[in-house]
């Protein structure tokens, strides 16, 4: 690694036989959950065993737990934002300006409990119609960025001053400035992800480095806070979809990967940044 820190490239398979795994997240006990886009299940690993938790109805993608240990799901197939409290699956948002949501992809909580969520549905380099939604917990929703070429994974910096978003079809990571009202300024290009398809899910460590699941490139590139490439970590296969930090010390990096239909774990040598509103 260019800054002299040592990273362990050993990668461990935790579960396989999965149908397009995505959306790794953690509940209040630190148990790992992930979505299976192909089967519709949100699955958890408890005691080393993968077990189905709840079926979202179609194609769950991003998922995250809130501080009250409630699961929030970006449901791309049914074009909804859902919440599941362990008992009832409820639609929180399903349309904007009289139109269905654009296949919600990934989501992250802001410090005030609102949600940033990407909507790439129907977008591409030739048709940049992707959006970023800003959603209140009661479902009130607005579009805070548009004209994007498949906006995908996203993460907030530790001070919540910037929102980093993978724009997959342009093979770049974008940086938006975050306003006090939740609106976004910019964006500017933070980093480039050439090769493969492009960046997918992303996550920060406590040093401000960004880890990117590079779909089609078979690696997890790591970018410094300035956007410089400082490391390439293994992903377990050619099509990693997402990354998330967990474990008792927050120093385990979990990777969902489609080519092998598996979830992996590795130790990058630095703790992950705990997301806002995290229940752990």
Can you give a write-up of this model?
The protein has strands spanning 11-15, 21-26, 32-36, 41-46, 49-55, 60-65, 71-75, 80-84, 89-93, 95-96, 99-100, 107-109, 115-119, 130-135, 141-148, 151-156, 162-167, 172-178, 184-192, 198-204, 210-215, 219-223, 229-234, 240-246, 252-257, 262-266. The strands form 7 sheets. It has a 4-stranded antiparallel sheet with strand order 1-26-25-24, with no helix packed on it. A 4-stranded antiparallel sheet has the order 2-3-4-5, with no helix packed on it. A 4-stranded antiparallel sheet has the order 6-7-8-9, with no helix packed on it. It has 280 residues and is mainly β. It is built from no helices and 26 strands. Strand 6 and strand 7 (71-75) form a beta hairpin. It has one domain (11-266): Neuraminidase.
SSE map:
Elements: E1 11-15, E2 21-26, E3 32-36, E4 41-46, E5 49-55, E6 60-65, E7 71-75, E8 80-84, E9 89-93, E10 95-96, E11 99-100, E12 107-109, E13 115-119, E14 130-135, E15 141-148, E16 151-156, E17 162-167, E18 172-178, E19 184-192, E20 198-204, E21 210-215, E22 219-223, E23 229-234, E24 240-246, E25 252-257, E26 262-266
Antiparallel strand pairs: 1-26, 2-3, 3-4, 4-5, 6-7, 7-8, 8-9, 10-11, 12-13, 13-14, 14-15, 16-17, 17-18, 18-19, 20-21, 21-22, 22-23, 24-25, 25-26
Order of helices and strands: EEEEEEEEEEEEEEEEEEEEEEEEEE
Strand order of the largest sheet: 1-26-25-24
Helix content: under 10%
Tertiary shape = globular
Radius of gyration: 17 Å
Stated plainly, the CATH topology is called Neuraminidase
The CATH class, by name, is Mainly Beta
CATH superfamily: TolB, C-terminal domain
């Amino acid at each position: 690694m260019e800054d002299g820190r040592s990273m362990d490239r050993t990668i461990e398979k935790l579960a396989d036989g999965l149908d397009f795994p995505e959306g790794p997240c953690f509940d209040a006990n630190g148990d790992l959950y992930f979505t299976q886009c192909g089967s519709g299940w949100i699955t958890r690993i408890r005691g080393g065993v993968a077990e189905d938790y709840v079926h979202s109805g179609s194609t769950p993608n991003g998922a995250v737990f809130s501080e009250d240990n409630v699961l929030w799901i970006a449901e791309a197939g049914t074009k909804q934002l859902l919440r599941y409290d362990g008992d009832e699956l409820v639609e929180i948002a399903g349309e904007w300006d009289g139109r269905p949501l654009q296949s919600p992809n990934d989501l992250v909580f802001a410090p005030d409990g609102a949600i940033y969520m990407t909507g790439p549905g129907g977008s591409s380099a030739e048709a940049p119609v992707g959006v970023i939604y800003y959603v209140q917990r009661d479902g009130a929703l607005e579009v805070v960025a548009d004209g994007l070429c498949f906006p995908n994974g996203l993460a907030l910096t530790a001070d919540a001053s910037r929102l980093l978003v993978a724009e997959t079809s342009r093979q770049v990571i974008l940086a938006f400035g975050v306003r006090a009202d939740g609106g976004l300024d910019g964006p500017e290009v933070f980093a480039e992800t050439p090769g493969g398809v492009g960046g997918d899910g992303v996550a920060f460590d406590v040093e401000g480095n960004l880890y990117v699941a590079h779909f089609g490139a078979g690696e997890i590139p790591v970018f410094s806070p300035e956007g410089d490439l400082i490391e390439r970590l293994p992903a377990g296969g050619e099509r990693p979809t997402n990354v998330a930090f967990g474990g008792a010390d927050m120093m385990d990096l979990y990777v969902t990967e489609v080519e092998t239909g598996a979830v992996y774990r590795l130790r990058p040598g630095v703790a992950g940044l705990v997301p806002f509103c995290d229940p752990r």
